[in-house]
Amino acid sequence: ELARTLQFKKTKSVLEANKGKISVLKPEKFIDQVIAQHIEELDPSQFVKSIDITKIRVTNEYTSTSFWLYASALKAVLDSYYASLPTGIVASGFSAEKFAQSQERAKIASEKLYEILTPAPIVDFHTRQIALFIAQENIFDALKNMEADPFKALLAIQTLKEVLSQMKDAQTEISTLSP
Fold first, then answer.
1. % of the chain surpassing 90 pLDDT
2. Over pLDDT 70: what percentage of the chain?
């Protein structure tokens, strides 16, 4: 729904900017090409900023107990994050305020992840979790500013789908990390 709204707004502006240059028979094909070109020029990696690995708290202890403590702390951060997201973030009209709230929640979650004591053998997994929340923070920032940059917002939507898929995969992966 959000993607369609953004495409409509961008289509309208492209049509207005290119009056007389667009074939009357296939304006939608032209618009699709323009949108695809702009999205190709954007880099999805812009949503994933560098992670300060020096802030990750690491322990060399890798026992069932240390893993359980880690997994419990991770679950608490995830539960808190999902419970704090505004309801109806998309269904209620794409409010910039709700995207800003979601951006702040993702930032809080990534900061809390840095505080978790992480067994050394799973630091790579933990680093990816932090990266996913930092990506969400930046994606929500792009969505919050969709009026100013609809192409970046469209790319953010596409990237968010991938981020959510990776988060779902991580739920399965964590069960394989237990010592």
1. 30
2. 69
The yes-or-no verdict on residue 15 having pLDDT over 60 is no
The type of residue at 2 is: L
Considering only residues 111 and 145, tell me which one the structure prediction assigns the higher pLDDT: 111
Give SS3 for 59. Answer: strand
Q: Name residue 117's amino acid.
A: L
Q: Which of 11-40 are b and which e, b meaning 16 or more Cβ less than 10 Å from the residue's Cβ?
A: beebbeeeeeebeeeeeeebbeebbeebee
* Cβ-contact 173, 132 below 8 angstroms: no
State the residue for tokens 């069960």: 175
CA 151 to chain CA centroid, nearest Å: 15
Tokens of residue 123, six digits? 């630091």
Alpha-carbon dihedral angle through residues 69, 71, 72, 78, given to the nearest 10 degrees:
150
- The owner of tokens 């949503």 is 47
Q: State both tokens at 130.
A: 């932090």
Residue 10: what are its φ and ψ, rounded to 5°? -70, -40
Using CB atoms within 10 Å of the CB of residue 74, give its burial: 0 to 12 exposed, 13 to 18 middle, 19+ buried.
buried
Q: What is the distance between the alpha carbons of residues 131 and 101, in angstroms, rounded to a whole number?
A: 19
0.85 exceeded by pTM: no
Q: How far is CA 174 from the centre of its chain?
A: 20
